[in-house]
Structure formats: C-alpha cells, structure tokens
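== Polypeptide entry ==
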Amino acid sequence: MPQAQVEALIPDFQGNEECLWQLAGSGACVIAHNLETVERLSPRIRPMADYRVSLRVLAKLKDLNPGLVTKTSLLVGFGEAQAEVLSAMRDARKSNVDILTLGQYLAPSALHYPVAEFIAPKAFQQFRQIGLDMGFKTVVASPLTRSSFQAEEVYRSVCYA
C-alpha cells in the first residue's frame, strides 16, 4: 500500500544510534517518542527510561533526517508545576520536535501512580498557545488528548498546511 502513511511510536532504544538511523530512514511520516512527564517526575513515572536520553533521541532523529516530522507527548496531573511543564515543552522544542500533544493523566487502576490534580480545560488552551508561540508546528492539548489523538488530522495540518 504505497499510499499508506505510518506514524511510529517508539521507545528510546537506550539511545542506540543504529536503531535511530534505521527509523529515520524508514519512510515513516511521523516518528513519536513520548516524554510523558516533566524531568523531576520522570524517574518515578518512567523508571525504565531517562528524560535526557528521550530528548537526545528526538534530536538525533531530526539530525539524521531533517525532513522527518517528530512528535512527543506530555501528560499532566502527576503533581508537576506549570513552570515544569513549560520547561519540558522548551526542552522538546530545543530537540526540534514538530508536534506536541498534551493531555490529562488518568490512572488506569488503583495500582498505578495516583492522579494528583485534574487540570482545567482553560490551562490546556493556554499550554497550546504557549507551545505554538514556542515554535511547535502544532500543539494538541485537552484533557482527553493522547499521543496518537487525531494523528492523521494533526499530520495533515503540519505537512499540508
């Protein structure tokens, strides 16, 4: 299906450049790797990952293929401060990420990390505008947004605008 378009959501591959080189040349339209949370909370929320490695992965993909569309996602409601969210957004932009999605964390069960706060919809609108002002090509932000939320529409808004 030559008309098929692929968005690949990848792990960090522990920064393995061979894996990233293969992905950068894979023909995927979008390669996404999610930060998930702010740097301070990352060790607790993502114990098998490293926030800085994730940023290097996103930057390296863009270095290897400057035409590639890159994407990351943040969830809020873990107990982060607004300033920490903005810092994570700046970090993603410095890594040349094109698309940011931002949504409310919802604990899948009582065994998972608890929700610390429910963020007001207005705050998501503000994060969206701030992200656009930072230079993201698009930002999708709402309580129910997830990393692949409206993936086709988001891709088209970036690549066919």
Remarks:
- Residues 51-64 form the longest helix (14 residues).
- Helices lie at 17-24, 42-45, 51-64, 82-94, 121-134, 151-159.
- The chain is about 40% helix and 15% strand.
- The radius of gyration is 15 Å.
